């Protein structure tokens, strides 16, 4: 006959089983990385690289959006700085045809191109001299010049010359800025006649002229705005 288990022995057995269960629960199976060079290892590496590439792509897109937004803000800020307010009573009564805002912006852009290509005459003396020499192009006159007698003879001079169109713009400050000068400018002539290379008096080499690409681009832009200027008849209906 088997001996009956005592309460003391039962307690010991229960304690051993409880310790064994706690030990088994505490031991977690660890993932064994696949051996290097196997298909599983290559799959894991491809997955990791793909996640990295995706994160990098997202980061680049985010930075690009930020840079574009900053660039747009900078352009808007530059446009605001470039604008000058001209009171209506400051506009000369003889300023006709007067370019509207949209056309004025195009004219200023062409003026900048002409300045870069050295195809721009600034001020009354240079403009008069160029027209009398037979240069063709587009004459821009500032409508807020005081007294207007300073440039009042230029429209008539342009009408008498062949191949010269003229148009008025609102601001002498904007015109000077577009012409690349720090001061306001009363008038500029965007010359369609290629500038001749002059040899300096000291015998040094002449300065390099504009490239063929710059001249071609200027010619195209000048023809475009000149056609728009020809369609202007008067300042009636133009709102600023």
Written account of the structure:
Helix content is 52%, strand content 8%. Helix 3 (101-116) runs antiparallel to helix 7 (212-231). Strands 1-4-2-3 form a four-stranded mixed beta sheet, with helices on both faces. It has a domain at 88-195 and 213-231: Ribosomal protein L30/S12 (60s Ribosomal Protein L30, Chain: A), CATH 3.30.1330. By secondary structure, it is an alpha+beta fold. Residues 72-81 and 235-240 have low confidence and may be disordered. The protein is built from seven helices and four strands, in the order αααβαβαβαβα. The longest helix is centred in the N-terminal third of the chain and has 44 residues, at 39-82.
Which whole number gives the mean pLDDT?
Answer: 78
How far apart, in Å, are the first and last alpha carbons? 119 Å
User: How large is the radius of gyration?
Assistant: 40 Å
The CATH topology annotation of the domain at 88-195 and 213-231 reads as: 60s Ribosomal Protein L30, Chain: A
- The proportion of strand residues reads 5-15%
CATH level-4 homologous superfamily of the domain at 88-195 and 213-231: Ribosomal protein L30/S12
How are the strands ordered across the major sheet?
A: 1-4-2-3
Number of helices: 7
What does the main sheet amount to? 4 strands, mixed
What is the annotated CATH architecture of the domain at 88-195 and 213-231?
A: 2-Layer Sandwich
Poorly predicted ranges (pLDDT <50, ≥5 residues)?
A: 72-81, 235-240
Give the total of beta strands.
4
Secondary structure category? alpha+beta
Overall geometry:
elongated
- SSE order, one letter for each helix or strand: HHHEHEHEHEH
Instruction: Just give the CATH class of the domain at 88-195 and 213-231.
Output: Alpha Beta
Subcellular location: Nucleus, Nucleolus
Biased composition (Basic residues): 55-67
Biased composition (Basic and acidic residues): 1-20
Organism: Kwoniella bestiolae CBS 10118
């Amino acid at each position: 006959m088997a001996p009956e288990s005592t309460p003391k022995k039962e307690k010991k057995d229960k304690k051993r089983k409880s310790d064994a269960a706690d030990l088994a629960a505490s031991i977690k199976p660890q993932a064994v990385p696949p051996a290097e060079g196997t298909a599983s290892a290559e799959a894991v590496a491809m997955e990791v690289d793909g996640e990295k590439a995706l994160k990098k792509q997202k980061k680049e897109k985010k930075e690009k959006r930020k840079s574009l937004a900053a660039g747009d803000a900078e352009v808007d800020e530059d446009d605001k700085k470039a604008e000058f307010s001209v009171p209506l009573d400051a506009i000369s009564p003889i300023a006709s045809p007067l370019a509207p805002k949209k056309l004025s912006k195009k004219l200023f852009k062409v003026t900048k191109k002409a300045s870069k290509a050295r195809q721009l005459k600034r001020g009354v003396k240079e403009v008069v001299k160029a027209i009398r020499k037979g240069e063709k192009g587009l004459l821009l006159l500032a409508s807020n010049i005081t007294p207007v007698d300073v440039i009042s003879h230029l429209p008539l001079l342009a009408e008498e010359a062949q191949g010269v169109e003229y148009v008025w713009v609102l601001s002498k400050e904007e015109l000077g800025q577009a012409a690349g000068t720090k001061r306001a400018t009363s008038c500029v002539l965007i010359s369609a006649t290629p500038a001749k290379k002059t040899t300096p008096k000291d015998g040094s080499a002449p300065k390099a002229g504009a490239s063929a690409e710059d001249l071609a681009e200027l010619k195209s832009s000048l023809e475009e705005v000149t056609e728009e200027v020809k369609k202007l008849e008067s300042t009636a209906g133009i709102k600023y």
